[in-house]
Task: structure prediction
Amino acid sequence: MTQAPPESVPTGNTFDKYGSTNPVVKRLMTGFHGTLDELWDKAAPESVLDVGCGEGVLTYEWAERLGDKRIVGIDLDDPKLRAEWQKRQRPNLEYRAEEATSLSFADNEFDMATAIEVLEHVPDPDATLAEMARVAQRWLLVSVPREPLWRMLNMARGSYWRSLGNTPGHVNHWSRVGFVSLLTRHGKVEEVRSPFPWSMLLVRVD
Result:
């Protein structure tokens, strides 16, 4: 696993995979969403902190599923993200600009903390996970691109050749085994799923 300095951390999605009309991307995202829904249903969270919520696409979807139960989405302060947050509002949903390695929330304040397609972007993923585990009472739900598969697929479609297939903003890279190893430091890994081409884990906080 490799890391890069903080200035390489982006906000928001480089590519709108959630809204893409490309049939291949849509098929991959169907598998991704299906697996994510299965792990969500197993966790059955009572409240959620969504770390690195980006434009709030998933956060808003989860807010609807939670009904009147609390969900908070956090990301770095960015006017473009704030504009997107204004489009996705619900009474049980709050957005905040926060740094993931120094969260303002109390210990065990949320039932579950999530980081979906986030940890590959952050300078210190271990510190981010430690904070998530601190504020989560029961669960962590996380996903990252599976390497080296992700970069190989990028190169196969002719993208990012100069960076050997690395997506802009990806500063950390894990195999499935490496990602599981990282998460075992923060709880008991209950589920390991591999929707192509991602790794997705549900972890019970110690």
The mean pLDDT is 87. The CA atoms of residues 11 and 54 lie 6 Å apart. The first strand starts at residue 48 and ends at 51.
